Amino acid sequence: MSTSSRRQTYQVKIDHITVGSQSPVIVQSMTNTDTADAEATALQVQELSEAGSEMVRITVNNPDSAAKVAEIRQRLDDMGCNTPLIGDFHFNGERLLAEFPECGRALSKYRINPGNVGKGAKGDEKFAFMIRMAAENGKAVRIGVNWGSLDQSLAKRMMDANLASSSPQQPEAVMKEALIVSALESAQKAADLGLPEDKIILSCKVSAVQDLIQVYRELGGRCRYPLHLGLTEAGMGSKGIVASTAALSVLLQEGIGDTIRISLTPEPGTPRTQEVVVAQEILQTMGLRSFTPMVTACPGCGRTTSTVFQELARDIQHYLREQMIVWRLQYPGVENLNVAVMGCVVNGPGESKLADIGISLPGTGETPIAPVYVDGERKVTLKGDNLAAEFLAIVREYVETNYGENGRKRERSRIIPIQTA
After folding, report:
1. pLDDT in the model for residue 308
2. pLDDT (tens digit per residue) in 398-413
3. According to the annotation, is 301 in a ligand binding site?
4. Is 103 annotated among the ligand-binding residues?
5. DSSP at 266
6. What is the pTM (predicted TM-score) of this model?
7. pLDDT digits (tens, 9 = 90+) for 40-86
8. 405 is in an annotated binding site
9. DSSP H or E run through 398
10. Of 4, 388, 35, 21, whose CA–CA distance to 220 is shortest?
11. Which CATH number does the domain 294-403 belong to among 3.20.20.70, 3.30.750.24, 2.40.40.10, 3.30.413.10?
12. Is 223 annotated as a binding residue?
């Protein structure tokens, strides 16, 4: 999708990253460490960054955590990781920013939830203080409205007005409108307080797919602020992945969305980086960005009773993702590489020829050989127990030859690659 197809927005500069319609959709994630543990938090930020997260949000919820933000930033700088840090503030952000001014300076962006700042005049004062701090420090702000913490005074005001209307809407429709109004009114307050419009990002997160699509379509049509997409409390495992993909893909296809985060509940033992991988794969499979070489593989059937092709596809996919930490710097454009690992003669040769590199493994009853195709031409035929290692060697040689300093594909990247630390 070209930038002209995107919903047009202000361009928000966050350190070395620009968020907005003239830039690629940015991948964001969030730590789940105790921010007061500066070492653990910095290490997880680095891990998320290496996986491809371009901005990382950290919880700033108490004095112990606020006191460590500057140290976390310093640790990251010492590790050579310049990934912007976003401070997630709820309830007491103004107090933490006042007591720990170095926290506000070390962060690259503040996330403020208008529903959790406070009520009435006191809430307005707290919000104003945080906005002024952001403006003084030259920081961007995401005004993040959430279905589960909507400003109740606003919701009540709108519900009362709806009841008094001659043609009242359903309560669900009023609540969705309240989300949008909360975001837009808060953005206007921030602008009136001196925060430039090109320092404001908005989000209105809900947990139901159709509601999210409806809210963001409406919000996107009523402002020029960049929008952060995410299905809040998406869930665990396949449920969270499917729900997030269903919602975000519709909006991204319509040109709506400038940063995304996949709010997965991690399964026990699952790395935090899974949410980054899912976000990247949504953008890459839609053709919006390229992050890592893609592996095409068949699902298997009665013709493929051997697990060889499954194991090879898995190993190749893991290998390519691991190598990208180094390859994205050494081999520009390699993120567009396409590899096919097929399991039998039905679609194997055809898919392998269409890929940059492809291997067609023998199905049940087929001759135990595996032809390898490079750029559509049959290059070699592999067989024997060392097949996986030999194919990996061919992949490495292809990358070095085609994406190295004098490689013919080095400058062929069609989609803007990931911005790296």
Report:
1. 87
2. 999 999 998 888 755 4
3. yes
4. no
5. P
6. 0.94
7. 999 999 999 999 999 999 999 999 999 999 999 999 999 999 999 99
8. no
9. helix 387-403
10. 21
11. 3.30.413.10
12. no
